[in-house]
Amino acid sequence: MKQFASWLLAAIAGSVITLAVNHYARPTQPGVIIERSSGIPAAQVAYTVNEKGEAVPLDFTGVADKVTKAVVHIKSSSQGRITSRNDRSDPIQEFFFGPGNPFEQRGPQVGTGSGVIINPEGYIVTNNHVVQGAEVVEVTLNDNRVFKAEVIGTDPDTDLAVIKISQKSLPHLSFVNSDEAKVGEWVLAVGNPFNLNSTVTAGIISAKGRNINIINSNRSMEDLERNGNTAIESFIQTDAAINPGNSGGALVNLNGGLIGINTAIASNTGSYAGYGFAVPANIVSKVTEDLIAYGTVQRGWLGVQVTSVTQQLAKENDLSVSEGAYVSDFADKSSAKEAGIEKGDVIVKLDETDIKSSTALIEYIGRKRPGDKVNVTVNRGGKTKAIPVTLKTRDGEIGTVKRDEKDALASLGITLEDMDSKTLKSLELASGVKVKALDNGKVARYTDMREGFIITHIDEKPVKSAKDANELLKTKKTGEAILFGGVYENFPREYIYALRM
Question: Tens digits of per-residue pLDDT, 348-358?
Answer without folding.
Answer: 999 999 999 99
